[in-house]
Amino acid sequence: MTKPHGRAAQLRQVLRVLTLLGRPLRVVILQRLARAPGTAGELARALPISRTAVVQHLKLLEAAQLVDASFHGRRRVYYVRIEGLEPLVQWLTSLRSSASQ
């Protein structure tokens, strides 16, 4: 059984993820990176925002551990961190389980 403190921490992470994903562009960025890793420039060319704006969104997603990056030469290539979504998946599973009882 999860301790109350652990549940509170998990809920804070879930709320952080939901808040971040409340911006449609961040959802689109996450979806694109789930299909294939990419650079901020590549993402910006596919979106109606500047590279600078994409970088700002990526920084927030990275801070929440939803994306990470690796360097390929001078290029920073971003990719989705599936484990960053785990608190949200666990919470939704718990919610579904509670609702079906």
Please give the number of β-strands.
Answer: 2
Q: State the major sheet.
A: 2 strands, antiparallel
Instruction: List the uncertain runs.
Output: none
User: Would you tell me the structural class of the helices and strands?
Assistant: mainly alpha
* Basic shape: elongated
DSSP summary: helix tally: 5
Which architecture name does CATH use? Orthogonal Bundle
Relative helix content: 55-70%
- Strand order, main sheet: write it out: 1-2
Order of helices and strands: HHHHEEH
Provide the CATH superfamily.
Winged helix-like DNA-binding domain superfamily/Winged helix DNA-binding domain
Radius of gyration, rounded?
Answer: 16 Å
Task: Provide an overview of this structure.
There is one protein chain. This protein is mostly helical and 101 residues long. The chain has a single domain, classed as Arc Repressor Mutant, subunit A. It is built from five helices and two strands. The chain has a two-stranded antiparallel ribbon.
